[in-house]
Amino acid sequence: IILAEEDDPQLKDAQNILRNILTRKLYVYVGQTQPKEAGSSNKITKADLLTDLQENIPENSTLKKDDFDVLEVKLDFGMGDTNPIEHVHFYNKIIHEVIFRVLIKSYSEEHLKEAHGIFKAVCEKLKMKEPSVDSWSRLLTSANLTNLESVDQ
């Protein structure tokens, strides 16, 4: 795909993705959150969270709407459609949970700081759990990756 000589418009997106992978321009992890109560009637979807993140970007920001992405992780205790409660003698009524992981497609430290603030505000607005934001994500910005590369050599 990368070595394709003709300018095929259908390959352009795939070529950009592969170039970003090869040059380590990967999405940056902003943090993760969950609905406050698993299985509650307040069903927040991946699309709801993404829309709110995009709508809460300040007007003076250099972040763009398409800089955000949300991954939805569903955990069902390994039994798929089978209810695991039928196989245990004591249990919690909640048989699955959902975790939303927020990423940005930008590699700037400034964008990451701004995304953290937007993410926290949206979690409060949607009444979700306090977002967990790992401090290691700031080490993955392109500036710090360059510093790490020079250390490796």
Automatic annotation (TrEMBL):
GO BP, one annotated term: dGTP catabolic process
Domain of life where this protein originates: Eukaryota
Gene3D superfamilies to which the protein is assigned, alphabetical: 3.30.70.2760
InterPro entries per the UniProt record, alphabetical: dGTPase-like
One of the record's GO molecular function terms: dGTPase activity
PANTHER family in the cross-refs: DEOXYNUCLEOSIDE TRIPHOSPHATE TRIPHOSPHOHYDROLASE, DEOXYNUCLEOSIDE TRIPHOSPHATE TRIPHOSPHOHYDROLASE SAMHD1
Protein name: Deoxynucleoside triphosphate triphosphohydrolase SAMHD1-like 4
